[in-house]
Design brief:
Blueprint: E1 2-7, E2 12-19, E3 23-31, H1 33-37, H2 44-66, E4 75-81, H3 85-102, E5 105-110, H4 111-117, E6 130-135, E7 140-147, E8 150-156, H5 162-172, H6 179-189, H7 212-223, H8 232-258, E9 262-266, H9 273-286, E10 289-291, H10 303-314
Parallel strand pairs: 1-4, 4-5, 6-9, 9-10
Antiparallel strand pairs: 1-2, 2-3, 6-7, 7-8
Helix pairs in contact: 2-3, 4-10, 5-6, 5-7, 5-8, 6-8, 8-9
The chain binds 5'-O-[(R)-(carboxyoxy)(hydroxy)phosphoryl]adenosine and zinc ion.
Length: 340
């Protein structure tokens, strides 16, 4: 079966075709970074308009790469939430109308389900059950994943998401959008240990997170008398280390608490090299395994949505009759049930 995947929840337009027998046949992503850079963040209306412009072109290009015709598509999966309402509507509108024209069924997919299943697309996929550390621009969550649609929330951020903290701190340090990767690059040039930043909720005894205080600590540091901009790399290194300390500690605690030995890291912050190095090191010491998506599938893409749709079909879901454009801009992952 060939499942088309469409992702348009934020500032990346992604399309992909996943074949349940042959794997990923093609995928294309267009990033809107250049479009939003001048504003220092995502402008929702511009995002929606760009998705409208890009989707038909990307779809045509992707199908050409995949060597497939439109009428070979068996089902259309698309991100129905969470995300920006206007941006989601574009993907949902294209998916539902295309599926209607083709006479195939649709699968509305949860964006984070796409992220957390994406490591299963790699050469050495993890087996269920596993703990997933979801670290994106909008979410920081630890989930126990028993199978497709079996998601138990173990802990989450009470305020800013890890990616959001990276982005906001990058802004404080005068870096451009998107801040996360730029801050990480600056941190790699710095030396951690000078600025004693807090490790929020490190010893809270639960699996929740909080990152907004860390961002405030950075703000207080750069506003204090005697602050020198040439110290920005060292401060960035300290910030990154503080975030990584908390993420690693809580992820290990989640594994210990659930008795599981496999950790899946997904979402944009999962691309952070320092986070990966520390998790790998800590897991190796305990004989546990850490799994990541392929680097190009760490940030938003259509492949993870096509794959999640295919997994749901394989698990017995039938999809819905095309034509009903429904989105869920706010949608807790734990509410996603088993395929019915
Ligand atoms: O999963 P994603 O592409 O989009 C969302 O669903 O949010 O994640 C984007 C987030 C942004 O906050 C971005 O700054 C962050 O991931 N990010 C990083 C790195 N690469 C992306 N944060 C830290 N280090 C990185 N290397
Ligand atoms: Zn995402």
């Amino acid at each position: 079966m060939k499942v088309l995947g469409i992702e348009s929840s934020c500032d990346e337009t992604g399309v992909a075709l996943y074949d349940t027998e042959r794997g990923l046949l093609g995928h294309r992503v267009h990033s809107q970074i250049d479009l939003h850079a001048a504003y220092g963040g995502v402008v929702p209306e511009l995002a929606s308009r760009d998705h409208i412009r890009r989707l038909p072109l990307l779809l045509r290009e992707m199908l050409a790469v995949a060597g497939c015709r439109l009428d070979e598509i068996d089902a259309v999966a698309y991100t129905a939430g969470p995300g920006l309402a206007g941006a989601l509507l574009v993907g949902a509108g294209v998916a539902e109308s295309l599926a209607m024209a083709l006479g195939v069924r649709t699968l509305p997919v949860h964006h984070l389900e796409g992220h957390l299943l994406s490591p299963l697309l790699s050469a050495q996929p993890p087996a269920f059950p596993f703990v997933a550390l979801l670290v994106s621009g909008g979410h920081t969550q630890l989930m126990r994943v028993g199978g497709v649609g079996e998601y138990e929330l173990l802990g989450e951020s009470l305020d800013d998401a890890a990616g959001e903290a990276f982005d906001k701190t990058a802004k404080l340090l005068g870096l451009g959008y998107p801040g996360g990767p730029q801050l990480a690059r600056l941190a790699d040039r710095g030396r951690a240990g000078r600025f004693r930043l807090p490790r929020p909720m490190l010893n809270s005894g639960d699996l929740d997170f909080s990152f907004s205080g860390l961002k405030t600590a950075v703000l207080n540091t750069v506003c204090a008398p005697g602050w020198r901009t040439e110290d920005a790399a060292d401060l960035a290194a300290d910030f990154q280390q503080a975030v990584v300390d908390v993420l690693v500690e809580k992820a290990l605690a989640a594994l210990a608490r659930t008795g599981l030995t496999r950790l899946v890291v997904a979402g944009g912050v999962g691309a952070n090299r320092s986070l990966r190095a520390r998790l790998d090191q800590a897991a190796k010491r305990r004989g546990w395994q850490v799994y990541y998506p392929e680097p190009e599938l760490c940030t938003d893409n259509g492949a993870m949505i096509a794959f999640a749709g295919a997994m749901r079909l394989a698990a017995g879901e039938h999809g819905q009759t095309a034509g009903r454009i429904g989105i869920c801009p706010r949608w807790p992952l734990a509410e996603v049930g088993k395929p019915a």
